Amino acid sequence: DDKLLTEPLSHPDFFSVKELFSLKDLFDARVHLGHKKGCRHRFMEPYIFGCRLDQDIIDLDQTMQHLQLALNFTAHVAYRGGIILFVSRRRQFCHLVESTARACGEYAHTRYWQGGLLTNAHIQFGPGVRLPDLLVFLSTLNNAFEPHVAIRDAAKMNIPTVGVVDTNCNPCLITYPIPGNDDSPAAVELYCKLFRMTIIRAKDKRRQSEAVEELQ
Amino acid sequence: TLRLICTTTAVQRKNVGASGPEKYTEAFIKKQIEEFNLGKRHLANMMGEDPETFTQEDIDRAIAYLFPSGLFDKQARPLMKHPTEVFPEQRKIQWGEDGRPFHFLFYTGKQSYYSLMHETYEKLLTVQKHQDQLIAQDSSIPLQKEKRNLAGSRWLTKIELEEMLLEKVSDDDYSRFIQLLQKLVALPCADIEEKYIQKFSKEVPVQLQKVVIEPLQYDERGVAFSTGEGQRKTARATAVVYDNGTGKITVNGIDILHYFPVLQDREQLLFPFQFLGRIGKHDMVCTVSGGGRSAQAGAIRLASAKALRSFVTEKEVEFMRQAGLLTVDPRVKERKKPGQEGPRRKFTWKKR
């Protein structure tokens, strides 16, 4: 059991996440497109490649690195049987995100976030609730273009976060930010596909390892 | 404001009441059911009856015999009922042994409501896809085969939805759900999901209660007659109106001239006949009890009008109803209130 948990940590890319996506895929899904110069957030400047006709272009090399780290982390969390909660407050992609979560066997929250969900969970849900071990944000802003409350709450409850940050978002409190577009349907579908594949891969690997252990 | 830096043990203790009503696990309920069945058999053996045919009524009688209780509150007495009746139907604990919740929308708080919205939206998407396919094939949108009966059906009420989902639904959420359903129904190809929509619509009984007019009956001589009942204040009357008559009216075996000396009461009796223009054509025999002079007259008037409905066309019945001949007079004696001399009259006001 100990060997099961420590073995993946010794490899840098145990789940071979790098082969799931390429720079061309990101470009085709329009991940590099950001908002206009006026919407730019000060802390996103390191991630921006340049500005063309007033529109910000996100540096896809950095995106590749961050995406690889984030997917690796989610795969490790899923391998250890952690609860992953997908959060997005965009109405267009609410159905897509919920179906992705259902397909993975994980959880989703694309509706109005009640104030004490994470911080007041024992009273809202009942004693003995298990909180999510990872929050994945497909869009860090809520419908009022402010940072989602869940980022702050997860930081308070020591829950790691993975989030897609656009040029108008604040990447401060997110543990594994992924600079990229969160408005185009193509980009969001790509992210959903990537997360789904990593989680399913990680779970399958876990089941295989457990079967191998049992045989021995 | 004071900030509590070092708290006392009293403050640190968990607020037990704030966690809401106790939630029962499925295993707990199953155990209770097993214990109940075992107890039922023991009880049957104790009472000397057959354990197989021991019904709930027998259980209640046995408990009342073995544990007699003089308490006034029926709900405080000893009780032995099936656990499904004792423990209210509520959501059992939502997560398994490893802590992972069962439902994928558990962390939203309102999982059944949001999963319902998710499903309905999915149906909407499938209908749209189907429509697109049809357009791609035929380049024409098929007309709706048959308009849903809008008058005969209604959507589920908020309370019914709450019962269905076993959780609270706010007014806003409910209206959003109904809007989504209406949007789904408005699409031309919504017939595919008819079964799903029917889960949320209910039939409305359209017809008002129609008053049945009884047909004429015939006695031994071959004369048509019909009966009617009427009341006014405390008087109750039954009237039998015969056809081919001379206009004779008998009350309690006494002729009306002797029973009602006052002209006003006789006018009341004759009013239905005068209205229909059938004064000399019908005979009437009535029985009346209770009330006073005027009340008895009013009761017989109503009874005779009801009886005359069978002799007359529907249009004339409608005229009678509009004239107020067929309505029961709701005025009764108002009660006296304490602190007043009568129903309305107050005691004389004295300045000092």
Structural description of this entry:
Chain B: InterPro entries: Ribosomal_Su5_D2-typ_SF, Ribosomal_uS9, Ribosomal_uS9_CS, Ribsml_uS5_D2-typ_fold_subgr. Chain B: Residues 330-352 are annotated as: Disordered. Chain B: Belongs to the universal ribosomal protein uS9 family. The complex is a heterodimer of chains A (216) and B (352). In chain A, 41% of the residues lie in helices and 15% in strands. Chain A is built from 7 helices and 8 strands. Chain A is globular, with a radius of gyration of 18 Å. Chain A starts with a helix and ends with a helix. The model of chain A has no long low-confidence stretch (mean pLDDT 93). Chain B is α+β, with helices and mostly antiparallel strands. Chain B is built from 12 helices and 8 strands. Chain B has helices at residues 9-12, 26-47, 56-66, 83-86, 111-138, 158-165, 171-186, 194-198, 256-259, 263-276, 293-308, 314-323; strands at 153-155, 201-203, 217-218, 224-232, 235-242, 249-251, 254-255, 283-289. In chain B, helix 5 runs parallel beside helix 7 (171-186) and helix 10 (263-276) runs parallel beside helix 11 (293-308). The radius of gyration of chain B is 35 Å and the shape is extended. Chain B starts with 8 loop residues before the first helix and ends in a 29-residue tail after the last helix.
